[in-house]
Amino acid sequence: MRRTLVVVVFVAITGVAGALAYSALANEREFERRIAEGDQAVASDRRFEAIEAFSGAIALKPDSMLAHLKRGAVYQSQNEFEAALRDLGEAVELDPSAPVAIEFLGDVNASLNRPERAIERYEAYVGLDERNARVHYKLGLSRYRAGRIDAAASALQQALKLDPALGDASYLLGLVLRDQGKLPAAKKSLEDAARRLPAGQTAPREALAEVYALEGEHTKAINELEALAALDVTRADRLVAVGLAQARAGREDAAVITLSRAVERFPEAPTTYAALGHVWLTGAQRRGDRVALNKALEALQQAASRSDATSDTWAELGRAWSLAGDRAAAERALRQAVARPWRGRSAAAV
Contacts by 192-198 with C-beta closer than 8 Å and gap 24+? Predict the structure, then answer.
């Protein structure tokens, strides 16, 4: 009897164990099917279906780092950053040594303009793998946004040591060096970025033109700005930038020609008349030229007649009226300059 009972219990236990094993195997197969289904949906850009599939996988295995990582990445791609934070944070908690999850979590914090939190994540990544140039660049970018300039420089230099062809890192390092006052080094880095990045990425050339001007290399600065204007003929501010650069270089006649062309091509642009008036007024003050003063007044009055005229435009008009000896008109213009809300710097002030 006792032996029969033992056999019965053993058979029962074996049956339960077999059922549990079968259930676990079925659960694992279903989990893998959901993951594969989610991957296929991602590849076909069916993101809602991907989230549904990965959610099903998480329901089956709540402690799966992979499922949380994949769903978090889909949320990130849809700019659903809070949902992405939850999933990616869970993925990192489940596996603190998973570099991809750590990097993605840094990316989401960067997208949410939380540079200090992004820095923490990228530094954690670098602690696990210091050979990834892209992550060193992201670390440098987050440090730069957080105002940690010196630390940003070291991360960007490391990124370029690992990948000298990383144009974005060269560009950002150029900005950092510019901010540090290291203009020759900034110029070299920005020149490298301009060579490596596609021509359509204009920011490096804009920064390079600025550094050339700060270094007193006005011809190079103007050349860069003219190249930018040629790349985008639909933007008035490109021509305005060329004209103002010519004026700063002492090429007043060329500046007047350029800005007059800008006025003709973009008569509705808010900066064209203001910039032309600024150049005429500067010349009138320097030479005591009444003809130039009248042209300055004409251009500045045209600029000030716009509803979006800046306080700087009104202030320059006030200066022009004062130079012309009309104190009442000068006072009216200066009152407008003080009363108007600040709308950013005018083209003439750049």
Answer: 192/167, 193/167, 193/168, 195/167, 196/165, 196/166, 196/167, 196/170, 197/167, 197/168, 197/171
